[in-house]
Write a structure and sequence with these properties.
Helices cover 63% and strands 0% of the residues. The protein contains four helices and no strands. Helix 1 packs antiparallel against helix 2. The longest helix has 24 residues.
């Protein structure tokens, strides 16, 4: 998802005024990399050699992956902190309720 698409969706769903929309656009542009999905759609492709019903162990996170994850989480926290200053309490609560829905769609 692009920063522009995310901004348009949030402006619509949260009923933002023009000042908020402008601030949100700047914020989403600054944090645009948060909205990009690494590796494309969905999870890993099924292994052709696996038998139906057989489960494959997920790969272990490397130190590099853990560091990247921590960096992403810190950036997400900074984004949420700045976003909270733009939105009203009611709008931020609505935004929070939208987050689990987005995560479910990404999976």
């Amino acid at each position: 998802m692009t920063a522009e698409t995310m901004t348009e969706m949030m402006v619509s769903k949260l009923s933002l005024n023009s000042k908020q929309a402008s601030q949100l656009k700047a914020l989403n542009t600054e944090f645009a990399d948060l909205f990009k999905h690494p590796g494309g759609k969905g999870g890993p492709k099924p292994d052709k050699d696996m038998k139906q019903g057989e489960k494959k162990e997920p790969p272990q996170m490397t130190a590099e992956m853990k560091a990247e994850f921590a960096k992403h989480q810190a950036k997400r926290k900074a984004y949420d902190s700045k976003l909270k200053k733009i939105l009203t309490d009611k709008q931020y609560t609505e935004y929070q309720s939208m987050k689990p829905k987005r995560k479910a769609k990404q999976g």
